[in-house]
Amino acid sequence: MSDMEFKSGFVAVVGRPNVGKSTLVNALLGQKISIVTARPQTTRHRILGILNREHSQIILVDTPGLHRHGGKAINRSMNRAAASSISEADVVAFVVEALRMTEEDEDVLGRVQKAGLPVILVINKVDKIKDKERLLPFMQQLAARHKFAAVVPVSAATGKNLDILQKEMLGQLPASPPLFPQDQTTDKSEAFMAAEIIREKLTNRLNQELPYGLTVEVEQYSHDEEGRVLVQAIIWVGRAGHKAIVIGQSGQVLKQIGKEARIELKRRVKRPVHLDLWVKVLENWSDSERALQRFGYETA
Length: 300
Description:
This protein is of the alpha/beta class.
């Protein structure tokens, strides 16, 4: 097969927060490249997941949820990351939740309509709908709103119709040689993935007390002579009072988070992991463009 017969391109997976974009990307890839929590706006960066097949390469772009109320610098950063992913894509996968269309969904639909790209409407979480007869009218109603390339009801959680969605994505991609090496699965480094895994454990543990006021910076990611992975990371919080919450009484919260993160990192890299965590304060880091740039967020 010649290079021109090979298909490759970018599919921006977009939608409002908490519609299951990261779960969908992970499910399509068959591996975890984006962290997932029950909290909206867990995804803060553009993350590429590269789905390699014999004659194709689908580059899935997981994006932060497009949202209103973007008053802080970090909210603006997330919206910029999602919007720029649309403008740079070959195809858009617009993800909505089954039987639910909110004002924020309408905002996202407006953005993808203006992009002038092929758009696949992905109706996620169909496994949660008990009365399936309600689904078809919902699909028809949305399908009338735009000339979608396809409308695919799926469940990222159960895998329902993901094979159909993958075929629809592939059908919209241009003929192109691979854009990444065919053994590569993401554009992010292992240090980035380590930071995200730590943040996932923090978010799951502290989602009531401290949902958004922290970020993780990996200062060192290396290997020792025995083959262990050595990770040193700082958990940054935005207020002095948050530091004690993350550490917990007698250090128990931090110890448990470290244990959970180390177990997942070990499973990911398939070798022993030594993880050191520190907690530091940087006042109002989430509303500082300079701090966001330092921590690797997309800035203007």
